[in-house]
Design goal:
single chain, alpha/beta, Rossmann fold, four-stranded parallel sheet, 34% helix, disordered C terminus
């Protein structure tokens, strides 16, 4: 009989993702909460969080140091994608659109933890759940 572990007992390498945050307001507690959000999302979805790149500069440029670091990380051979708490972390619409294009150009996926699409349950419960956010898996 072979003493080698069966598949369920072998360490499994989950897809590696890198987080990106644009944190220009709020204190350290807010930053910690955002990091915790990404960490928990990755844990729940069996993703390995390889690191988090954070922009703290209020000036929005499509090539900030943190974003360039993210793009470099996405070029690594074992990289699966980028994860952000919400699309707003990519910046204003024009900048966000360009950043999304740059992320997908690397062949990586863009994973958004919170989207703004309201959930359609039924007409009566729609009013109760207005503004509810989906979690994209």
């Amino acid at each position: 009989m072979d003493d080698e572990l069966i598949t369920e007992r072998r360490p499994v390498a989950f897809p590696q993702v890198f987080g990106y945050l644009r944190h220009i307001t709020g204190g350290m507690a807010r930053h910690t909460a955002l990091v915790d959000c990404l960490t928990e999302y990755c844990r729940q979805h069996e993703l390995t969080l390889g690191g988090i790149f954070t922009d703290r500069d209020a000036a929005v440029a499509s090539h900030s140091a943190a974003f360039v670091g993210l793009l470099d990380a996405l070029e690594l051979p074992d990289s699966y994608g980028a994860v952000v708490p919400a699309l707003s972390h990519l910046g204003p619409r024009r900048v966000a659109a360009e950043r999304m294009r740059q992320i997908t150009a690397t062949g990586a996926r863009l994973i958004v933890v919170r989207t703004i699409r309201p959930t359609r349950l039924n007409a009566s419960s729609d009013r109760q759940h207005k503004g509810m956010r989906d979690v994209r898996s």
